[in-house]
Amino acid sequence: MDDFYKTVFSRRSCRSFDVKPVPEDKLLRILEAANAAPSAHNAQPWHFCVITGEDGKRKLFESAGGAYTSDLMYADMPEDEARRRADESKRFFCSVPVLVIVFVEHISCAPDKRDIERALRVESAAAATAQLLLAAEHEGLNACWYCMPHYCPNVFRDFAGLGEAFEPIALIALGYADKEPKRREKRPLLEKVSVIR
Ligand SMILES: Cc1cc2nc3c(=O)[nH]c(=O)nc-3n(C[C@H](O)[C@H](O)[C@H](O)COP(=O)(O)O)c2cc1C
């Protein structure tokens, strides 16, 4: 199998990391790959906030704790479970070598175009995030895409020093796996494709 397909098919979400640091040159190439993604109108409506140091991670998760717990409760999670989830997330994310918060930058536009522009911008940032994951795999690193920023977006936005126009859509954990990540079965291609001749 050639290198590209090897990268695509060997990538899997990693949820347990070694303490080994991520070399800066690899991190830079991974971000360059993400930034080269296709985007609607070539707008590149993304921003990556990269957190490498322990202080930054601790600061983020200390601010996130309360807001994350209340937003999980708002999403119908019982209080004790929400607190346990917030504590567990803090412990886990503070131990991950590199975190990348992916933001979408929204623009103001005419009401009739608002939903379309919003979708195009989120889709573009998601394409960049997918490229980031593949580039990480290609660099021999491991990663996982987490949706946590959807729960307490203001905490992530304030932490990164960004304005209201920026919506955090993903938190990427990046590093070296400390054990082989589990392979998730994929449904067969034929269930997902239709061909019209
Ligand atoms: C939009 C999106 C949100 C995700 N959020 C989470 C998450 O919050 N927690 C988590 O453990 N995995 C999350 N994942 C990873 C998926 O669970 C994972 O991609 C899926 O189970 C398939 O496994 P694979 O990535 O190893 O192929 C997310 C993936 C995507 C694309």
Q: How would you describe this structure to a colleague?
A:
This protein is an alpha+beta fold and 197 residues long. It has a single domain, classed as NADH Oxidase. It contains six helices and four strands. The protein has helices at 3-10, 24-35, 54-74, 79-95, 111-138, 153-160, and strands at residues 46-51, 98-105, 142-146, 166-175. A four-stranded antiparallel beta sheet has the order 1-2-4-3. Helix 2 (24-35) runs antiparallel to helix 5 and helix 3 runs antiparallel to helix 4. The mean pLDDT is 95. Bound molecules: flavin mononucleotide. Residues 12-13, 15, 144-147, 184 line the site of flavin mononucleotide (FMN).
Primary descriptors:
about 200 residues; alpha+beta; NADH Oxidase; four-stranded antiparallel beta sheet; binds flavin mononucleotide
